[in-house]
Amino acid sequence: MATRPHQSGPDDIAARQAVMALCTEASREDLDAALRSLEAPASEDLRPPETGLVMATGRIGGDGRPFNLGEVSVTRAAIRLPDGATGFAYHLGRDRTKARLAATLDALWQDPARRAGVEAALRPAAQRAEAAGRQAARRSAATRVDFLTLVRGED
Length: 155
Description:
Elements lengths: L9 H16 L2 H11 L5 E17 L4 E16 L5 E7 L3 H14 L2 H31 L13
Antiparallel strand pairs: 1-2, 2-3
Helix pairs in contact: 1-3, 1-4, 2-3, 2-4
């Protein structure tokens, strides 16, 4: 039995993007623990998890011209819950189980009645991702070079 999809506004879209980004950064173990705590229903694959390659581009130089950096592995999945809700996920890497878990969490999050539960279940993963980001910022700050004071050699 399919339910009518929830109408989403700009705030819902931004919140969903944030949850999907968190699922991308989280480990498979974090996603699995979150899903187990929610006692999610079984889901069917709309698109079984599959891995492929995409071209990563970069920009360099004063004009910012794009160049092809190389190919990276990306895994995607699409699922449907018994109530008709659909979920999607993409992430860098080849972990098909992680993509399916993230797609299931996306589908669950879209139900307003389940949203708070999904966010609470993902809170430990968000805290770990935030701590890892702070640690990376500290490491890169330690290598920072300040070019503010330069001697020109003029007398």
